[in-house]
C-alpha cells in the first residue's frame, strides 16, 4: 500500500536562508505537516544551498544571469518546480522581481515575507526607512504574491516597538525573530486549507476558525510563546514584546 501524498514545499532563496532554516526545522519536528521538496536559489554562492543540502534536501541553482530576461528565468523556475510537484512555494529572501510567467501558475500557492508593516515601505532598506520616518513601530508582513511588488493581499503581521537607540541592524535583528514565528504559522494555515486567496483577498475559512478563536490563537502564541521551540526559536528574547496582528484575513459572512 502506497504512502499518502505528503504536502511538498519549495523554498526559494538568494542568501543564507534564515527563514528557510525555520521551515526545515518545523517540517522535521512535525509542527508543519509537510516536507521541503526542493530549495532553489538564483545565486550560486547562496549559503542556504549548503545548509539545505546538509539537511538532505535537494537543491538547485538557477542563475538568473544565464538568462536573457526575467520571463525566460521565470520559465526555468516553473519547469523545475513542476518536476518536483510542489504544493506551496515559499519565498524566503528571494531577491528577484517575478513576472506573470512565474506568478500565474502558482496563484494562491505563493507566499512571501516582507520586513515592513505593509503597505508601508515596499522594496528595499525597510528598517532604515522606518527609522528615518520616525515610526514608533516596525515589523514584518506575510502576504500572497501577486503582480504588484510587495502588494499582494496581506495575511498576518508582527510588530515591534522602535527604540530610541535602534539602528537598522538592531531593528532587523528583533524583527527577524518574529519572521520565524509568523511565516510558518501562515504556511500552516494554508496547508490545512484554512487560508485561501480569493477575490476578497486573503480569506480564512470561518467554518473552521471562528473570529474570536483566531484572535485567541494569535494572542496565545504571543503571550505564551506557544510552539516557539517547535518553530526553531531557541533562545527567544522575552524583552521583545510580540504583537501578532491578523491583517485583512476576511471571514465570510455566515449565510451571506
Task: Return Rg in Å.
Answer: 18 Å
Helix percent band = 25-40%
Element string (H = helix, E = strand):
EHEHEHEHEHEEHEEHEE
CATH topology: Rossmann fold
Low-confidence stretches: 206-213, 219-256
Q: Which descriptor suits the 3D outline?
A: globular
CATH architecture: 3-Layer(aba) Sandwich
Question: Structural class per helix/strand content?
Answer: alpha/beta
Distance N to C terminus: 43 Å
Q: What would the average pLDDT be, to the nearest integer?
A: 83
What's the CATH class, please?
Alpha Beta
Strand order of the largest sheet: 3-2-1-4-5-6-7-10
Q: Roughly what fraction of the amino acids lie in strands?
A: 15-25%
Oligomer: single chain
> What's the tally of helices?
7
CATH homologous superfamily caption: Formyl transferase, N-terminal domain
Describe the structure.
This protein is of the alpha/beta class. The protein has one domain: 3-Layer(aba) Sandwich (Rossmann fold). Helices cover 33% and strands 21% of the residues. The protein has seven helices and eleven strands. An eight-stranded mixed sheet has the order 3-2-1-4-5-6-7-10, sandwiched between helices. 37% of the residues are buried.
Amino acid at each position: 500500500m502506497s504512502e499518502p501524498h505528503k504536502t511538498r514545499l519549495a523554498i526559494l532563496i538568494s542568501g543564507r536562508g534564515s527563514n528557510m532554516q525555520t521551515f526545515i526545522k518545523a517540517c522535521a519536528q512535525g509542527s508543519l505537516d509537510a516536507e521541503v521538496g526542493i530549495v532553489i536559489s538564483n545565486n550560486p554562492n547562496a549559503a542556504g544551498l549548503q545548509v539545505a543540502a546538509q539537511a538532505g534536501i535537494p537543491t538547485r541553482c538557477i542563475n538568473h544571469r544565464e538568462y536573457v530576461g526575467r520571463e525566460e528565468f521565470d520559465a526555468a523556475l516553473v519547469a523545475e518546480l513542476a518536476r518536483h510537484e510542489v504544493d506551496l512555494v515559499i519565498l524566503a529572501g528571494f531577491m528577484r522581481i517575478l513576472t506573470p510567467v512565474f506568478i500565474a501558475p502558482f496563484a494562491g500557492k505563493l507566499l512571501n515575507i516582507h520586513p515592513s508593516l505593509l503597505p508601508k515601505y515596499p522594496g528595499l532598506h525597510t528598517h532604515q526607512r522606518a527609522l528615518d520616518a520616525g515610526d514608533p513601530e516596525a515589523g514584518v508582513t506575510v502576504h500572497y504574491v501577486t503582480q504588484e511588488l510587495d502588494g499582494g493581499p496581506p495575511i498576518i503581521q508582527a510588530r515591534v516597538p522602535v527604540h530610541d537607540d535602534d539602528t537598522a541592524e538592531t531593528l532587523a535583528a528583533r524583527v527577524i525573530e518574529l519572521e520565524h514565528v509568523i511565516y510558518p504559522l501562515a504556511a500552516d494555515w494554508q496547508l490545512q486549507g484554512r487560508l485561501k486567496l480569493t477575490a476578497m483577498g486573503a480569506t480564512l475559512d470561518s467554518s473552521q476558525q471562528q473570529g474570536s478563536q483566531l484572535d485567541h490563537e494569535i494572542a496565545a502564541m504571543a503571550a505564551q510563546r506557544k510552539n516557539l521551540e517547535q518553530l526553531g526559536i531557541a533562545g527567544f528574547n522575552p524583552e521583545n514584546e510580540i504583537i501578532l496582528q491578523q491583517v485583512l484575513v476576511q471571514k465570510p459572512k455566515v449565510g451571506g
